[in-house]
Every structure is written in structure tokens, then in C-alpha cells.
Amino acid sequence: MLAQNLQDIIARIEKARIAYSRHQIVRIVAVSKTQNADAIRALYEAGQRAFGENRVQDLCDKDAALEALPIEWHFIGTLQTNKINALLALRPSLLHSLHSQQLAHALQKRLEKQGQNLRALLQINAAREDSKHGVAPESASETYHAIRETCPNITLCGLMTIGAHTDEQRKIQQSFEITKKLFDTLPDASILSMGMSDDFELAIACGSNMVRIGSLLFAKGRFL
Ligand SMILES: *Cc1c(COP(=O)(O)O)cnc(C)c1O
Questions:
Q1: How far is residue 196's CA from residue 193's CA, in Å, rounded to a whole number?
Q2: Which of 70, 153, 174, 183 falls between 20 and 30 A from 61, CA-CA?
Q3: Which protein residue has the closest C-alpha to ligand 1 atom 6?
Q4: How far apart are the C-alpha atoms of 160 and 183, rounded to whole Å?
Q5: Ligand 1 centroid, distance to 214 Cα (angstroms)
Q6: Percent with pLDDT over 70 in the chain
Q7: Which residues contact 84 (CB under 8 A, 6 or more apart)?
Q8: Which residue's CA is the closest to the ligand 1 atom numbered 7?
Q9: How remote is the CA of residue 162 from the centroid of ligand 1, in Å?
Q10: Hey, which bits of 26-153 come out as E strands?
Q11: What is the pLDDT averaged over residues 121-128?
């Protein structure tokens, strides 16, 4: 059933991607934050390699349970400073949620000490919601450049945003468009992480090349 979900989502992504550009490649991060290790293993066996978690402790537990599998872990949640060491020990493939210079500096300190490098995306609060972390669009460029200059052990690869929390398509689209516009102005930005279960096709239409999909992927029963 998970394999079928994955196939259905890939088909929908494929359609959206080709409508945007035949040259666009879109990667899926399977958001497994509400799932146990068995569900992750089942989806891995269906071919999925990148998984996203939003709590460091959960990531540690699942990584330990799935040690034998070469899973590519993405961290997509709010990172507390006191969890930095635990996260870095897992050598995550990508941190989607770098949301401030302050966090970048705290990470840099640890990374330098450990002679380690971390790939990260700057999180943009494109919809300007108080409930969300992220840099305001107007200060994003300055923050992006400042982190590049002052944090040599962080490799900034692009941007992440969460679509506006509303049923209004127009507003969700706006938050994706703002982020895409910014993305196009930044040096070495190759990853644009936008789109979740409810809005991934819209995100791809706006230029996303990495979608973070949880509930739809792990849904019981067909959804198409
Ligand atoms: C939970 C979560 C997702 C996945 O959301 P779904 O609606 O379940 O697809 C994506 N991104 C972030 C940052 C999340 O916290």
C-alpha cells in the first residue's frame, strides 16, 4: 500500500513537473515524523531513500532502529540549540530549517570544533506568520550572504518555506512565488524546498524542486 501511495504521488509530481519544465527534477523527502521504523522500512523497500524528521530525539531513535539501511535523513523541524550536538552526530544530509543567523553561528561553532560540514537551507517565513520560524523575505538575502561569509562549515544550498496556512490558493501561491523569486537571486542556491501533501503540485508549478510529503504518502487507503 505504501508502494502504491508512492507511485501515485510520483505520477502526480511527474505531471506537475513536466507542466513546469521537462528539465526540472523534483526530489521527494518522505516526512516520517508520525511514523515508526517499520513504516519507514516499508517505504524504503518501495524505493524511497530520503526521509524527513522534525524532532532530534525521534531522528536518533529511528536512525538507531534502521541502522542497517543507508537512509538519507533530512531535518525539517525547529532545532533547539541544546540539540545541535545530537543532530550533528547523525550527520544529516540536509537541514531544511536554518531560520536565523544566531542558529547558524551556534551550528558553526560546533561544526568547526568537530571538523564537520553541514548542508542547509535558509527557511523563509514567506507568509509572515507568527506561528512560523524563518527569515522575513526582505531580510533573507542579507542573512543568506552573512551566513555564507561567517559560517564556512555550513554549505547553504538554497531555501525552504512552508506555504501559507490557509485554504486560499492565491495566498499559498504567493508565499511560494516570493520564495522562488528570492531563490533566483542567490548564489549557489540549487535546492528549493516547498510543498507538502496539500500543496505540492502548486509548489512545483512555482518552481519547487524538493517536496516534503508526509500524510499523503503514509495514508491508509487510496486517495486518488
Ligand atoms: C509535517 C511537515 C511536512 C509534511 O506535511 P504533510 O502535510 O503531512 O505532508 C512538511 N514540512 C514540514 C516542515 C513539516 O513539519
A1: 10
A2: 153
A3: 214
A4: 9
A5: 6
A6: 98
A7: 106, 107, 110
A8: 197
A9: 8
A10: 27-31, 50-53, 72-75, 94-98, 118-124
A11: 96
Average pLDDT of the chain, as a whole number? 96
Q: Is residue 223 scored above 60 in pLDDT?
A: no
Query: What is the CB neighbour count within 10 angstroms for residue 23?
Result: 7
Give yes or no for residue 197 CB within 6 A of ligand 1.
yes
Query: Which of 9, 54, 196 best tests ligand 1's pocket when mutated (most atoms within 8 Å of CB)?
Result: 196
53 SS3 class: strand
| pLDDT tens digits for range 17-62 | 999 999 999 999 999 999 999 999 999 999 999 999 999 999 999 9
The three grid cell numbers given for residue 98, joined into one nine-digit string? 536554518
Q: Residue 200 CA: which ligand 1 atom is closest?
A: 9
Which residue is listed with cell 537512509? Answer: 71
